[in-house]
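Quick one, probably user error.
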């Protein structure tokens, strides 16, 4: 019998804290992944959407006769067909209130527009045919007659007097007038402040650009009256409930959602879309599966966009530089309809995250959420969290320059100290721990902060402007949700984890398997992950808000404890001992003080083959457990970026990048570093390259990759990554989440570096994206 006190090579290789390669990768790298569009069901037909080419207008008619007569066409559906079938509408589900306490003004969005179109890409019909090309040809034959109306694409313009009105029941286009904080106390703090810094900041609109376009296959089982939807998602449990309850109007057991591999989402695939009701209804109507897959042009206009806020940010400080209050006054662009969580980013998430890791006694956030004639806006990696940190860091950097203070010292002066935890913030959160100044100091060392001037001189010798930027961040992860932690011992000797979170690129299988291996000692290579079948779930919060490991990991820990409890009773039976004498360690149940025992896998197998077990002996070690929920956690860190700018062209190159992060207990450092890299690149993309632009009449001018810039591998340097962990006290694993932190640190670090490079010319602020044209213009204006 091995000594439980000695290191176990297996646990050291696959346990918590080890950089285990992703289990998913061999399949995906061989091209054997199965995404929705890879599926072809017997007898399936094809669906193609008909979208409005107008940004705003009244629908006079939708002519379908010519399309119906075309070869292969099986059906042409309009909004009237879905209304007649009794389907419900898409709507916002967040319970936000106006400053007067009244609920937000919701919008009932039909899956196919019936009276008015409100953005270019608004679906008005769908065509179903035997082949995709037949459906596409017929879609082009649908005759849409629209009386065009004036359009408005900017939130502030839509809220201005005389702006085109999108809805009769939404005067001024404002669906939510949100306010948080004690306005009188905040005003008093600003009135008495020794210094006030003010910035007008644009949080630019982003196209999500997931590698896999959205796709869906609808089926209908006539004998059971049950729908089946195969679709890329961020969680099948929540999507099933939304579709069944709000749209299909059927009991949840009459809908099954199946999700295979998902090629990225970043918030965009979390909720229902109009196409899903279309393929499900068509499948019921035709008695055969119906498939729809978007093309990239369709994705640009139909996938929910991200960001898009116009913000006036203010910071009040005393004479020593201590923060007195921070105030955000903003407009949030919702697009033509309210997405499921559309108003959350510029309201509650701004509020939670503007505090960052600083002692800020007063916060006020006032945001008008406004509908415009643009694609609806929803969550995008970070969903308001990176923005809150970005605003604060730009304010701090600007305040330091205006007050003649060292920006590092100003941050350190205002950092929450370790002896102040638990720390109740002005936003209502309670931080459980952190070591913010020490983490920042380590990042300064790692980045060779004090060697910068030599590098700046070398760049200047080559005719380039060099700047450095620091970005502290602290994120409040997604709010608590119940999560399933199922464990099933299979007949073939494998062990299946069943979870309601869903991997769309993160590597859940590996990290969750490491947790289960550490808890139960089951062989790592025997562990599987089941996550994309709503029939298997009794709970599930989905993946989003950097909470997967905190939720699913905790659920696995608790479920493992239940397995051990069952295992003690079963082992006692087979070992002919009392359950109180059974010990468990490293995957083995044994009688205390003896070498008699049984491995957990052997025990599961013996239970499967056992008959006539006593009532107090479980028939299986399987567990279906729901983790009740854990409070949010607070990942934090410090990013330091250096850029070079060519003053003759305005072109920016990111040349150095270092990070030190506190993600709490790290289960798999390889995966965590990869997540950080991805977030940093997306932050660089928003900061320098990406911008959604509309014409005055609402046409999308950046609707292809010829016009919309994305960062490429050659545009980013190698990233330095270090961990300075302070384990979380809010969940059993001590984890803090990491999926969105890269964006939260990179937005301020990159933009601060750009402004620093331009500051010798007198430039004090640049909005995202810092394109060559924008930078060149700023340089010419300064000169």
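Nope, works fine. Designed sequence:
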């Amino acid at each position: 019998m091995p000594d439980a006190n000695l290191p176990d090579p297996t646990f050291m290789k696959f346990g918590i804290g080890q950089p285990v390669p992703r289990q998913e990768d061999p399949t995906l790298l061989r091209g054997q992944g199965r995404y929705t569009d890879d599926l072809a069901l017997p007898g399936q037909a094809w669906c193609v959407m008909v979208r409005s080419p107008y940004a705003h207008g009244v629908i006079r008619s939708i002519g379908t006769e010519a399309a119906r007569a075309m070869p292969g066409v099986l059906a042409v559906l309009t909004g009237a067909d879905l209304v007649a079938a009794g389907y419900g509408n898409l709507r916002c589900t967040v319970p936000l209130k106006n400053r007067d306490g009244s609920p937000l003004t919701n919008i009932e969005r039909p899956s196919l527009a019936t009276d008015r179109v409100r953005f270019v890409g608004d679906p008005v019909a769908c065509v179903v045919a035997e082949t995709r090309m037949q459906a596409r040809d017929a879609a082009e034959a649908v005759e849409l007659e629209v009386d065009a109306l004036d359009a408005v694409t900017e939130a502030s313009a839509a809220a201005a007097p005389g702006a085109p009105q999108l809805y009769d029941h939404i005067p001024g286009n404002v669906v939510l007038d949100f306010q948080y904080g004690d306005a009188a106390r905040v005003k008093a703090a600003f009135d008495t402040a020794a210094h006030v810094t003010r910035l007008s900041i644009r949080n630019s609109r982003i196209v999500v650009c997931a590698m896999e376009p959205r796709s869906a296959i609808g089926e209908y089982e006539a004998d059971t009256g049950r729908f089946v939807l195969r679709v890329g998602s961020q969680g099948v449990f929540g999507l099933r409930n939304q579709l069944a309850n709000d749209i299909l109007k059927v009991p949840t057991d009459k809908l099954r959602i199946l999700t295979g591999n998902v090629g990225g989402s970043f918030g965009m695939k979390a909720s229902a879309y109009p196409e899903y009701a279309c393929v499900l209804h068509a499948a019921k109507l035709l008695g055969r599966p119906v498939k729809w897959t978007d093309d990239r042009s369709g994705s640009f206009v139909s996938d929910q966009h991200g960001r898009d806020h116009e913000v006036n940010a203010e910071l009040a400080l005393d004479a020593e530089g201590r923060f007195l209050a921070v105030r955000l006054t903003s407009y949030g662009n919702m697009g033509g309809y309210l997405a499921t969580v559309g108003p959350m980013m510029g309201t509650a998430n701004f509020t939670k995250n503007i505090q960052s890791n600083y002692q800020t006694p007063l916060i006020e956030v006032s945001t008008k959420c406004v509908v415009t004639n643009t694609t609806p806006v929803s969550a995008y990696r970070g969903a308001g969290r990176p923005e809150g940190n970005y605003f604060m860091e730009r304010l701090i950097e600007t305040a330091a320059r205006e007050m003649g203070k060292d920006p590092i010292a100003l941050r350190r002066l205002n950092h929450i100290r370790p002896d102040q935890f638990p720390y109740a913030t002005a936003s209502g959160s309670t931080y459980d721990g952190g070591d913010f100044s020490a983490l920042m100091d380590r990042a300064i060392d790692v980045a060779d902060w004090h060697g910068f001037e030599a590098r700046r001189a070398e760049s200047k010798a080559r005719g380039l402007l060099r700047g450095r930027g620091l970005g502290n961040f602290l994120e409040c992860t997604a709010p608590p949700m119940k999560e399933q932690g199922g464990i099933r011992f299979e007949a073939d000797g494998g062990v299946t984890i069943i979870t309601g979170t869903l991997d769309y690129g993160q590597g859940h299988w590996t990290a969750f398997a490491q947790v289960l291996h550490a808890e139960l000692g089951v062989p790592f290579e025997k562990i599987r992950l089941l996550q994309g079948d709503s029939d298997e779930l009794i709970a599930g919060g989905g993946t989003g808000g950097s909470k997967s490991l905190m939720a699913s990991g905790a659920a696995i820990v608790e479920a493992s404890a239940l397995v051990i409890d069952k295992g003690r009773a079963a082992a006692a039976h087979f070992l002919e001992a009392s359950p109180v004498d059974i010990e468990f360690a490293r995957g083995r149940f044994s009688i205390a003080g003896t070498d008699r025992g049984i491995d957990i896998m052997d025990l599961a197998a013996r239970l499967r083959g056992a008959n006539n077990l006593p009532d107090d002996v479980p028939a299986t070690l399987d567990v279906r457990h729901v983790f009740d929920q854990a409070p949010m956690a607070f990942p934090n860190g410090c990013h330091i970026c250096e850029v070079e700018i060519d003053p003759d062209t305005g072109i920016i190159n990111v040349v150095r990048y270092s990070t030190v992060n506190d993600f709490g207990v790290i289960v798999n450092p390889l995966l965590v570093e990869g997540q950080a890299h991805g977030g940093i690149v997306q932050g660089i993309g928003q900061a320098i390259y990406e911008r959604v632009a509309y014409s005055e009449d609402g046409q999308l001018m950046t609707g292809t990759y010829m016009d919309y810039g994305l960062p490429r591998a050659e545009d980013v340097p190698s990233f330095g990554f270090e961990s300075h962990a302070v384990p979380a006290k809010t969940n059993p694993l001590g984890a803090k989440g990491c999926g969105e932190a890269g964006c939260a640190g990179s937005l301020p670090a990159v933009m601060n570096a750009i402004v620093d490079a331009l500051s010798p010319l007198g430039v004090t602020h640049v909005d995202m994206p810092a394109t060559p044209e924008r930078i060149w213009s700023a340089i010419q204006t300064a000169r």
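Confidence is low (pLDDT under 50) at residues 1-6.
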